[in-house]
């Protein structure tokens, strides 16, 4: 048992094992990091099958990919991919000690190490289309980060500040989507008694300009769709830190006045 631990702690292809969880990193893990983490579970989870150990590895990978806001493939597809990486490692590892220094073996090792220094890419083929379809305001930033992670050496890293901003923006967008969906019915349900229209009434303001040579019309008619009105007031309310309820009140006031 002691000699087994020694061999597993210092693999001749992957070097040392990875004692740290893959979920706490600031970059998407490379294949070599995934295999080093697998070796850790080989040493600690003695009676666990290879597939079950990779399920543990996948649970850690899913956490960091979720934090990066990058879609991944279904679990069974990810496990199949991890098992293929393990198969590649097993083939090269099977090279006998006496043959490891010959040119052919060194070439196989070099190709293997180059492959291990690439991203363990769990994304589906249509990852960009899925990120665009999500309509998240930061999808392009996330996709550019993902492209940088595919390079070697990797470009970019995740930070605590970015993580907090992503959470805040996501919650805010979800609230806006919820209230925007309800706004069409909410505006029609509000009555003039519920909205203080006089607050928005500017009839006491003299807007006449005596210096103008061309007289202006007393009133004009402008048609604005409810969707465009909601979008415009939402942007202004967001920039002025107004609450969603205040924004709906403004929209309702416009609707009431325009319907008179």
Task: Give a structural overview.
The protein has ten helices and two strands. The protein starts with a helix and ends with a helix. With 260 residues, the protein is an all-alpha fold. The chain has two domains: 2-157, no CATH class; 169-200 and 220-259, no CATH class. Residues 1-8 and 190-212 have low confidence and may be disordered.
Topology of this protein?
Layout lengths: L1 H8 E2 L3 E2 L14 H14 L5 H18 L7 H19 L9 H14 L10 H7 L5 H11 L10 H30 L36 H14 L4 H16 L1
Antiparallel strand pairs: 1-2
Helix pairs in contact: 1-2, 2-3, 3-4, 8-9, 8-10, 9-10
Overall number of strands: 2
Taken as a percent bin, the fraction of beta residues is under 5%
The dominant shape is: elongated
| Strand numbers in spatial order across the main sheet | 1-2
Radius of gyration equals 30 Å
Give the helices and strands as they follow along the chain.
Answer: HEEHHHHHHHHH
Main sheet: strands, sense, barrel: 2 strands, antiparallel
The overall pLDDT, averaged over residues, is 79
The number of distinct helices, counting runs of at least 4 residues, comes to 10
What is the structure about, briefly put?
With 260 residues, this protein is an all-alpha fold. 58% of the residues lie in helices and 2% in strands.
Could you name the key traits of this structure?
single chain, 260 residues, mainly alpha, two-stranded antiparallel sheet, 2 strands, elongated
